[in-house]
Known about the structure:
This protein is mainly β. 5% of the residues lie in helices and 43% in strands. The chain has one helix spanning 4-14; strands spanning 39-44, 47-49, 66-70, 77-83, 90-96, 105-108, 125-132, 137-155, 164-175, 178-193. Strands 1, 2, 3, 4, 5, 6, 7, 8, 9 and 10 form a ten-stranded antiparallel β-sheet that branches.
Amino acid sequence: MKTFFSITTMLVLMTGCTKDTSSSYNAQLPPETQVGANTFGVTIKGKVYVPRDPLGNGIYPSSKGMTFVGSSSNNWNEIVVKDGASAVGFKMIIHFKQLVYNYNGLYPLSNSNFLDQSDSLPIDHIYFKIWDSSISNYAYYGSMENLGAIDITRFNGSTSINWILSGTFNGKFVRYDNPNDFITINDGRFDLNLNTLPNTVFP
C-alpha cells in the first residue's frame, strides 16, 4: 500500500518539470457549464487554479493537466487536476467511491485519508496540495466529514458520444499536519467530456 509520504515524494518529483516562471499568466475561473467543455476551476486563498499540462520533458512527460481515471469494476473514479506549468504547481484529487450513471445530485464529502485510487478508503473525498511560501514547501489539505459536497449536475452514460460529467464542489478542508489550519472552498466547478478529455490540451 502506498503511504502518504511516498505519494508526497511522487508529487514533489512531479514538480520537477520545466516551469513557466513568467508573471503574465493569470488564471480565470471558467463558467459553470454542463456541455462537456473540459474545464475546471477553483479559488483557494484568493488564487484561481486551473489545469495546465506540464512543460518540457520532466519526469512524467505523459502527465496531463486533467485526467479521469477509474477501476475496471467502477468501484472508484477520480478527477485528477494539476497545474504542471506554473512556477508553483498545484494538484487536486476528487475521489468518488462510485459514480452513478444518470444521477444528478449530491455526494457528501468524508474525511480524506490523502490516498488515491485503490488505496483510498471507499468514500467520497477531495484532497489537494498548494504551495505555502511560509514553509517554502507544499501543504496538503483534505476534506472533512459532512462539511462539503460534490454536486453532480450532469452525468450521462458512457455509450453516449457526449459522455459528460459536470458539477460543482465546496467544503471545509483541513491541513494534513495541522488540525487547526483550515481552507474553505465555495466555487469549485468542472465540466468534462470524458471521450475528448484525453486529447484536450491545457496550456
